[in-house]
Design goal:
The chain is α/β, with parallel strands linked by helices. It is built from nine helices and 18 strands. The strands form four sheets. Strands 3-2-1-4-5-7-6 form a seven-stranded mixed sheet, with helices on both faces. A seven-stranded mixed sheet has the order 12-11-10-13-16-18-17, with helices on both faces.
């Protein structure tokens, strides 16, 4: 259970009898929070298993309290506060909860811009909880918050909450360069695992690949769909936990996998990706993966694939080509 969830548990009396929407829920434990309240969860993260899995929440009728765990990025926080303000027609109580060393103090000014007055309700577990009456605002659209990423002759759309929002990260840039410089298999079926804004999907689809793009983030799924449409390209974009939405075997997998799960650094996701990839590849299928140089992926690739090579690298990143 996250520390922020434990802090919310301390507010059981204040939550009693309330109709609560948790926005951008970041902890599966929130689904079974032991409080006497009507609780509904929105999440951008597919693995939370929320009632609402979407880039932005819908505030159900009868809701009288909004709870917002601090998002990882300020862009996402600004977007959600503006979105929530546009969802309501009367002032509604809003709680912002987050780690003391995770930016909650700096985020407070964005809450204060939307509430009458922000007050500190509780402080424990190295976290703080602030409350204020959220004032109604102008309705928002996802497209209005989109930013266009231009890479050579292609473009992609990014939304707040998408990895590396508004720019092409260094790892994906290297992976694109290495893919362009190497001889790939004849275009067939490919999975872009952890598709983000869809830059790799657009690049592959333009070269004739049948793309399935997958991401755990609802914002990323929406962005990748928009990116393919913007370039008049086709592809199947789905949300899921790694290969949970995949069907049949493919010729190639490409990925710039995360090494953070929310705020915690982890290699577990990529270890699962590598271990599960062979069962989703055709014979002689390939996986192209970019990662920080210091991460121990090569030994896991060696265990799962017949042939592994470093196809390109910089002082910070390395691209691996693994053949089944």
């Amino acid at each position: 259970m996250e520390n922020t969830t434990q802090l919310l548990l301390r507010q059981a009396d204040a939550l009693s009898g309330r109709h609560v929407l948790v926005v951008d829920a970041n902890d599966t434990a929130l689904k079974s929070l032991d409080v006497d309240a009507s609780l509904q969860l929105h999440a951008d993260d597919f693995t939370i298993g929320a009632q609402q899995w979407a880039p932005a929440p819908t505030v159900p009728a009868g809701t009288d309290l909004l709870v917002l765990p601090l998002p990882k990025s300020i862009d996402r926080l600004r977007f959600l506060l503006n979105w929530l303000a546009g969802e309501i027609t009367e002032p509604m109580e809003c709680w912002l909860v987050g780690p003391a060393k995770g930016g909650i103090r700096g985020a407070l000014k964005y809450l204060e811009a939307h509430v009458d007055e922000a007050t500190l309700v509780d402080s424990a577990r190295h976290c703080k909880l602030y409350s204020g009456m959220l004032q109604p605002g102008e309705p928002q659209t996802l497209d209005a918050w989109g930013e266009v990423i231009t890479v050579e002759s292609l473009s992609a759309v990014s939304y707040p909450g998408v990895f590396s929002h508004g720019r092409l990260d260094e790892g994906s840039r290297l992976l694109l360069d290495v893919l362009a410089a190497n001889r790939l298999p004849s275009p067939g079926r490919v999975i872009d695992m952890g598709c983000g804004a869809g830059v790799l999907s657009v690049w592959l689809a333009r070269r004739g690949w049948q793309v399935q793009a997958v991401d755990v983030s609802a914002s990323a799924v929406a962005a990748s769909k928009a990116s393919l449409a913007r370039n008049d390209l086709q592809g199947l974009v789905t949300g899921g936990d790694l290969f949970s939405a995949s069907q049949g075997r493919v010729d190639m997998i490409v990925s710039n996998p995360p090494f953070h799960d929310r705020r915690q650094r982890t290699t577990d996701i990529t270890r699962r990706l590598i271990a599960e990839a062979p069962s989703h590849l055709k014979s002689d299928g390939e996986m192209w993966l970019v990662a920080n140089r210091e991460l121990p992926y090569v030994q896991w690739l060696d265990e799962a694939f017949r042939h592994v090579q470093v196809a390109g690298e910089t002082t910070r990143f390395r691209v691996y080509r693994a053949v089944l």
